[in-house]
Design brief:
three-stranded antiparallel β-sheet, mainly alpha, 3 domains
């Protein structure tokens, strides 16, 4: 008699295969793939999760400028849309709001804490690595995808940005997502995938403005040359993608333009309070051409990345962040194009080589020669292209060895050259991981000799093992940088992964500008104005709540410290806020941010990021005081000197000698406000803080 298994048992037995199928679909692996593919893919994802999540909160609120905006976004939906620094919507970030929208939702859901700010960034990194592997697997195969994932995961600038709250983490994820959609478009000839590519690029624009469009040449050129169908069909697809890009790029710009100026915040970083000016000026064209944008200006601001030129990506500032696999990626590009040179025009793997190659070349040229502000961590968006080309190139060279013995020589030369580059980069930090550079160089040269030996002489498995070991040796340098980055607390806007290399701009202090000061894109503070980022110490868990009751991620309260204001002054401001909208007005967002994070209350940042924006005039300040919206004003910096003019990219030239995009207008306006406040308002002496004035009742 046949006995049927109970239905529950049959369902239980089907659970694991179903979960396996879902996991394969999620990671882009096929049922027919070799047994090692799924475990190897999961292992790389796990490595990225460890790199990006372990010890994540060591940096506290990280870049407090963006953390304050995330707090504001969690408190006010209008601030969430505008991207305001404060929940009362006085001024926005000098970037579109998409990145802080994500963080703002996290803070709204889980409360203010280091984890609620940084975990979304880390998860973006893990997703970027997984999505890159899924993309590469479709064109270059599973082995190439594993290599690509490892190279990207261990790229030092990627480890830094996926553990930080600058917009670059979201930007990179959107780029990789666009690449995946584009490859699907090449495979299927479905215009909807091209439309999705355009949408993702448009969202990237709303993350970091013009940098979000830097992948467009890669997609446009590849689609035009290697897309399926007739010229008309390809042209139609490009038109649809262009429309999708424009629509997805313009929603914030249109929203800001439609809202009357008096009902929206001033756009930070602009000279007239508009988003268009921001794009055409300092944070758009000004980044490329220097000065105020439009190809003119003062010749460029401080770059944090050394002198522009063809070798900038290999210098002391940039080399340790991205250069490790650049030569090998170029070898991979050439190899892939040669290997598939005689294929049909629509060959998808060859098109993928072109896409990644143009992606890499575009960023390399722009980053090497741009004369405006450039940080070394911008290079994180090059990591996906480098990883894909290294993976595809190594697999292509290995696959061709039995047919073309010269490819073994090319692979060996690439390994030896990359080992020499790693030795050079590690040599800039002789006290960091001493001896590692020598080990990588010697092992690389020995393994290169082994790789040269033809497979007809040496067993294939031994040759394959030598290649895998060579790759592991080449990953040792980036891995050491990554471990160092995981253990380091970073803050402010000028950050770099790994140890400070001799001769680099960050050699004076870890994780920031020289000496550890976090300057706004170059300008250090002058008299009466605190260095950006020299804002004291904040609790990493949000501190105590205002009423003294801690909660999950509770808002920091009077017992916390913020900026150059001590706990007693913060408590005084909170207790005496009354009906005022802002608890205090300060000159810059970098001074305002830690106060907001400490109190959970809006602070008026009169001059934007570092006091260079002409956002507030004396008459406007008097009107705010008269209406009761503003009572307290902080005029000085760390030294409490009233009337101190801000420096940095705007206002008076700082130590680097660069005036900013807003010139003297903001500096003179803030100096005028400071002078009037010092002569008309009552000085408040409390705690150790100075430069604080009570302006209640001064304007009738």
């Amino acid at each position: 008699m046949t006995t049927l298994a109970p239905p529950a048992t049959r369902r239980d037995r089907s659970v694991l295969p179903a979960l396996g199928a879902r996991l394969r679909g999620l990671l882009g692996t096929r049922q027919a793939s070799a047994a090692w593919v799924l475990p190897a893919t999961l292992a790389v994802v796990a490595v990225s999760a460890v790199l990006y999540l372990v010890n994540l909160t060591v940096s506290g609120y990280a870049n407090e400028y963006y953390s304050a905006a995330a707090l504001a976004a969690s408190q006010s939906w209008s601030s969430w849309f505008f991207g305001s620094i404060d929940s009362a919507n006085f001024i926005t970030l000098d970037k579109p709001p998409l990145a802080t929208m994500v963080m703002g939702l996290s803070v709204r859901l889980f409360g203010l804490s280091s984890a609620s700010i940084l975990v979304p960034e880390a998860l973006m990194g893990v997703a970027s690595v997984a999505l890159l592997m899924a993309t590469v697997r479709r064109t270059f195969g599973p082995a190439a995808s594993i290599i690509a994932g490892l190279v990207m995961a261990l790229t030092p600038s990627a480890v830094l940005m996926f553990r930080y709250n600058n917009p670059d983490a979201l930007l990179t994820l959107l780029f990789v997502g666009a690449a995946y959609a584009f490859i699907r478009a090449l495979e299927s000839d479905r215009i909807r995938w091209l439309a999705l590519t355009g949408v993702l690029v448009g969202l990237a624009f709303n993350t970091k403005l013009l940098q979000g469009w830097m992948v467009l040449p890669a997609f446009a050129i590849t689609s035009a040359l290697f897309g399926r169908g007739t010229i008309l069909r390809r042209g139609t697809g490009l038109l649809v993608a262009a429309i999708a890009t424009i629509v997805a790029s313009s929603w914030w710009l249109v929203g800001m333009a439609l809202v009357p100026a008096e009902l929206r915040p001033y756009v930070g970083g602009s000279t007239d309070g508009t988003a268009i000016n921001l794009i055409l000026g300092y944070d758009g064209l000004g980044r490329i051409f220097g000065g105020s944008g439009n190809g003119g200006g003062d010749g460029g601001g401080p770059s944090f990345s050394g002198t522009s030129g063809i070798l900038r990506l290999f210098n002391a500032e940039m080399g340790g962040q991205i250069a490790w696999f650049l030569p090998l990626s170029l070898v991979g590009l050439v190899t892939g194009l040669v290997a598939r040179g005689r294929r049909a025009r629509t060959d998808v793997p060859r098109a993928a080589y072109v896409m990644w190659g143009v992606w890499l070349a575009t960023h390399a040229l722009v980053f090497s020669f741009m004369s405006g502000v450039i940080h070394s961590y911008y290079t994180v968006v090059m990591a996906p292209a480098i990883g894909a080309l290294v993976g595809g190139g190594i697999v292509a060279l290995w696959s061709a060895r039995e047919r073309l013995q010269w490819t073994g020589l090319v692979l060996a030369a690439a390994v030896a050259g990359s080992a020499a580059l790693a030795w050079s980069v590690l040599g800039r930090t002789p006290t960091f991981a001493p001896g590692l550079g020598t080990v990588v160089l010697v092992a690389g040269l020995v393994l290169a000799v082994v790789i040269i030996v033809p497979t007809t002489i040496m067993p294939r498995r031994l040759s394959m093992a030598a290649t895998a070991l060579a790759l592991a040796m080449l990953l040792a340098g980036p891995a050491a940088y990554s471990v160092n980055t995981m253990a380091t607390a970073y803050s402010g806007g000028a950050v770099a992964a790994g140890p400070a290399a001799a001769g680099s701009a960050s050699a004076g202090g870890p994780g920031g500008a020289p000496g550890g000061a976090q300057a706004r894109d170059g300008g250090q503070a002058g008299a009466g104005f605190p260095p950006d980022g020299a804002n004291g110490t904040l609790p990493t868990d949000g501190g105590a709540a205002r009423d003294g009751q801690g909660g999950p991620g509770g808002q920091a309260g009077p017992n916390a410290t913020g900026g150059n204001l001590d706990a007693a002054t913060l408590a005084y401001l909170v207790e005496n806020q009354g009906t005022a909208t802002w608890i205090v007005a300060v000159q810059s967002a970098n001074t305002a941010a830690p106060i907001e994070l400490s109190t959970g209350l809006p602070v008026l940042a009169a001059g934007g990021f570092s006091g260079s924006d002409p956002a507030l005039t004396l008459d406007q300040a008097k009107a705010l005081i008269k209406s009761g919206q503003l009572r307290f004003v902080m005029t000085g910096g760390a030294g409490g000197q009233p009337g101190g003019a801000p420096t940095g990219p705007g206002g008076q030239a700082g130590p680097n000698g660069q005036a900013g995009p807003n010139g003297q207008a903001s500096a003179s306006s803030l100096a005028e406000i400071s002078s009037w406040v010092a002569s008309s308002c009552t000085a408040v002496t409390i705690g150790s803080s100075s430069g604080l004035y009570d302006c209640a009742g001064t304007v009738q």
